[in-house]
Amino acid sequence: MRLTTSPFAVRCRVRSLIGLLWITGLALQTGCYSYLPMQSAPPPETSPMVALMIGDRGRTLIGERVGSLVEQIEGRIVRRDSMQITMQVHKVIDVRGNHSTWTGEQVVIPNEAVMGYRARKFSKLKTALLVGAGVVALVLTLGRSLDIFGVPVEGAPGGDGPSQS
Predict the structure, then answer these.
(1) Quick one: which of 5, 72, 126, 143 has the fewest CB in 10 Å?
(2) Measured between alpha carbons, how far is residue 91 from residues 28, 51, 98, 117 in Å?
(3) What pLDDT is attached to residue 3?
(4) Residue 153 has what DSSP assignment?
(5) Do residues 138 and 121 lie in contact, with contact meaning Cβ atoms separated by under 8 Å?
(6) For residue 98, what is the domain's CATH number?
């Protein structure tokens, strides 16, 4: 007994694959960067984005400004001195893993609130995966919409149907 795959099943699989690739691309959209492991010393001034790791004492010190359960604050350091850090905040992550997006508001954080620093680094691998997934999804999307792969359509003219004379 020979099993054949219907054109409908092939179209469904291709559409599922295209959708999966687009979802992967969206998930990797922020994947061009990764944060380095935590350091006790502040990152160099050349590091534009940084994540501040906040300890228990820090949560009590800055709880009114960014939330009482904050674990990590991501953003750009605007000013730093021996007593405090002024930061443009872009994202706050709490101890439960919940993210809240900020729009660059400046927050003053005392140095004693900071447990450690994580510098952001460009990730070549994640960027390559993002670009690759985007290209494959684009080719498959255009291929299906323009029918460049030549998938035969059932009941198309010129098929095995009765000929008209």
Answers:
(1) 5
(2) 17, 9, 10, 15
(3) 56
(4) P
(5) no
(6) 2.30.30
